[in-house]
Amino acid sequence: MNLAGPNGWRATREWKDISTKWRLVPDGLRSSRPEDPFARGWVALEAGELGQAEDLFREAVRQRGDGNDYVALGDVFVARRDWSGAADQFERALLVAPLSVLAILGLAMVRAATGAADTAIAELEVLARTRPGDPVVGYYLALALIARTVEVRTEGRGGQLVISTQYQLDTCDWLAGRVLASGTEDAQLIAAAKALQAEVRQGRELVWSEQRPTLVLAGLVLLLGVVPVLLGGLLANVPLLVAGLVLGTGLVFWLFYRYRQPAWQVALGTITGRA
Fold first, then answer.
1. Which terminal Cβ of the chain has fewer Cβ within 10 Å, N or C?
2. Is the pLDDT of residue 157 over 80?
3. Alpha-carbon distance values, 53 to 47, 64, 97 (Å)
4. CB count, 10 Å around CB of 222?
């Protein structure tokens, strides 16, 4: 299986997710011995030849079976989005090399892709404390944090993700901030976090929820509040003046309480059909 040629394959997000962690390994480990099935498997993986890469990495596992061999084989399954197969290989790598950072990153990526981003975040934050400022660890932490923002939001009509509760709003705000503090250098992940922060800020703004009732009630406030105040002043009628002030203030407060809502609630009603 060739994934649209080597250049097209290496431009994909999948390749970046696979290859970023290998920046922690010296290039010579993958290329110094061209007769090594692992080195040849890496060349095939870079070219998007997944079938050939799998065969060669399996041969490397049979001949040597170190942690990196299993991680590379797991990456073939990641490229195919076979998350179960990938997790199995990364777990095997950890059995052989319990401290393998590559295997930890690979397994965290699988968790983030399969609905367990919170677990991935917890594991990666532990790893990040042992490797402060490492942009590779930061990349996978940011990836897991973005995945978690997808998990916590609600899917609206048409499949778009919407913020439907105050908890989701606050959680997305926190997660986006953590992405920006993760140390990742990935422009797309940073842009996604900033866009989510902007969505949260906009969602917190108070807006009018219903235009027509607001106009009607504004007229009522004018009639019952402002007019008595004006008449009370003109007629020097203190009780009428006070009544107008109290009634007008109460109606304005009720008007804002009833029809001013956070923008995320108004948008949710529009998207889901709940007015």
1. C
2. no
3. 9, 16, 22
4. 12
**What six digits make up the tokens of 69?**
């061999």
Q: Which of 4-18, 34-48, 106-120 has the lowest mean pLDDT?
A: 4-18
Q: Do residues 117 and 111 make contact, with C-beta atoms less than 8 angstroms apart?
A: yes
Kindly state the tokens that stand for 163: 């913020």
Residue linked to tokens 């040629």: 5
Task: Tell me if residue 208 falls in helix, strand or coil.
Answer: strand
Please say whether the beta carbons of 199 and 256 come within 8 A.
no
Predicted model pTM? 0.78
Distance of CA 168 to the CA centre of its chain: 12
Separation in Å, CA 170 to CA 173, 196, 200, 257: 5, 11, 8, 22
- Picking from 43, 112, 38, 50, the residue whose alpha carbon sits closest to that of residue 75 is 50
* Cβ contact 79:18 at 8 Å: yes
For residue 103, the number of C-alpha atoms closer than 13 Å in the C-beta half-sphere is 21
Cβ neighbours of residue 218 under 8 Å, at least 6 residues apart?
Answer: 255
CA–CA separation, 107 and 39 (whole Å): 22
What contacts 181, CB < 8 A, 6 or more positions away?
none
Nearest CA to 196 out of 135, 270, 146, 136 is that of: 146
